Amino acid sequence: MRLARPLVLLVILSAAVRPLSADDVPGHSRHGSAFDTGLRQRPWRMEGIGHTHFPITTKVPEVQVWFDQGNTLLHSFWFEEAERSFRWCLKLDPDCAMAYWGLARCGLNWFTRGPVDTPETRRYLDFLKEAVRRKESVTPRERMYVEAWATAFTGDGKERMKTLSKLLEPIVLQHPADVEAKALYALFSIGLGNSIGNELVLRQVFEKEPDHPGAHHYRIHTWDRASPAEALRSCEQYGLVAPQSGHANHMPGHIYSKIGMWHEAAFSMDRATRVELKYMNERLALPFESWNYSHNRNYLCHIQEQLGMPSASLEGARDLLAAPRDPEKNKDGSDGDYDQGITALVRALLRFERWDEVLKPGAIPWRDGDADKGRRAFAETIAYVGQGRLVDARDRLEALKAGAPTGGVAEMRALAAEGLVRAAEGDLLEATRLITAASAIEKRGREVSDFVNDPPDDPWTMDRLLGEVLLRHGDHSLALLAFERALKTLPSDAFALAGRARAAFALGDREKAKRSAGRLLHVWSNAEPGLRWRAEVDALGLDATAIAETPAPERSYRPDALKSVGPIDWEPYAAPALDGLDADGVRVRLEDFRGRNVLLVFFLSDECAHCVEQLVALNGRAAEWNAENTVMLAMNGAPPERNKGSQKLGGLAIRLLSDPGHENARRFASYDDFEELELHSTIVIDSRGRVQWKRTGGDPFTDVDFLLRTIKKVNAAAGARS
Q: Which of 212, 208, 110 has the alpha carbon at shortest distance from 160?
């Protein structure tokens, strides 16, 4: 997985917790900003996530159960749900030091690189300080954990993982029965140059707990970049141990794709995507609220491309592009759903040589940012070469080169594109030089983990591209070498196998050609018909049969193989029941508005100045909402007569609804179970009663222009369906 800090959803604490700082703003936590954002509903006993036990000091026995759940979730990097469980520990035992330590770990973890005194991580430092403040109340063993984190998460963090690894060593040595210490030691030792040592430590964990989800997870990461096949045992087990954890299903796919087990990789990523979507629908979450969703789907798109399934891959890319956007959580450049959707779409169109679609206006929803400008120039240069329009290709190439800084992916793409142009112009020598230089950049990037390969952004390795150019121009010996290098980088790459079969056949090596063709038949056993690479190999008349040259047996994947697990495409979930009384005491339900969009706002009261400001701002655009077939509803806990008599809200076009028992707020996750507090929510519900977008938190959402744009997109999508 990418070492970018995941997007973490946050939770709220109970009223019993000692405040970190006072905050009396309506809708905000009474305990300060560290507790003031994110998921604010109580946890539930989660099945299918595996099990771990981390004994802690607590006055309330039930706390241990919730702490173990949070700890188990952290082992699968499920940070937002782990935080919810640790918050409930504090609801039950407000001075539990280890619950604060657990909360700190939700944001101060393996992903935390560089300085931590930032707006995103400062709240976790606050949690850690509270754990340190209470460290004398716990056992010496627990205190060592708290002090390890307090030491490691200070300063610039350049040696943070090494520091944590070093500070976990004495816990492992002094407490040999503590499997959690060994698992965490293995996690924070990943990438420090001792994979075999890590493996031996993890084997000690497995001796006591063969199904430890963290140990299986960390074995996969330990060998991911070192020797991926060594992780196969844990790849087979991790998803079985924690079948309802999306990441537990996802991570084996990293290994399978690196060793060329493309069918098994597809099973992993497909199941991970479905498990994530099922969870999101059940817990009323949207794609931008799940950090792993877009990564899962983009990776699955790449794997489906490798299996010769362009339609399935393109469906996934467009699904990512259709997912709702948020002005903060998946804005442009955040590596969110839309960014990964663009990546997947362009990669598939180029990989399968859909030149017309690349160049068709509107087929790719390009944006104005620098990243899209560079990617667009690259894609269009390649497409024009594919169409033989070399003047246009030269024009786009100049734009690409002008915006490509020296070094890194941008220069690699510029060199590759120019190489293709030169080859099309007949200058094979210069084309070979340019693409070879691009290959060298790619190789260096992979060696220092600076090259995106999980999944790749680009449609081919540079060596495979070089092989295609050389093969097309009749240099079969060098083409064969290029394809073989490509297969070392990306084992069982069907496109490179097809190229190697053709090059070997042209050189008279029928046996190598036949074996390459057989391997292609295995990888593309369920591929779509009509792909040119398969047709060109079939035309050689090799009479090949499918050969599975994989480190372990694998199942045969089809896109509908896991339909029973859950949905593969994101769909807006059905809105919960809405049932309240308006200001005149008339019963109002959501189904009363079927056929119209609903903008639903949960607000605190007319005494909340921010609430009034939001409602007045929405009301000021009443004509626009009406023009978009949208009715506005605003619900709070006041009785109907108070809403009717409100001077501040009188005269609004927004229909005020009463929810005195907060039952509706609870159904819409707009109520804080930790502090028993009403929350601000703004929810967009389409004409079929499905939630298309929402925002819940301590402050009302006031970007009315964004909401109107969202409604317009909803209506446009509905129009396209009809």
A: 110
Domain ranges (residues) in the chain: 1-17+26-157, 288-324+334-496, 579-721
Rounded Cα–Cα distance for residues 545 and 542 (Å): 9
Residue carrying structure tokens 């040595």:
173
Residue 527 CB coordination number (10 Å):
19
Distance CA 558, CA 508 (A): 35
For residue 718, what are its two tokens?
A: 């509905």
For residue 399, give the DSSP letter.
H
Q: How many CB atoms lie within 10 A of CB 420?
A: 23
β-sheet bridge partners, residue 589 = 579
Q: What is the DSSP letter of 671?
A: E
Q: Are 47 and 244 in contact (CB under 8 A)?
A: yes
The C-alpha angle 684, 686, 691, rounded to 5 degrees, equals 55
The stretches of 209-261 forming alpha helices (DSSP H) are 213-224, 232-241, 246-258
Indicate the SS3 state at residue 634: strand
**Residue that is written with structure tokens 């129009």 in the block:** 719
Architecture per CATH, domain 579-721, reads as: 3-Layer(aba) Sandwich (3.40)
Coil/strand/helix, residue 428: helix
* Tens-place pLDDT, residues 595-613: 999 999 999 999 999 999 9
156-171 pLDDT, tens digit per residue, is 777 899 999 999 999 9
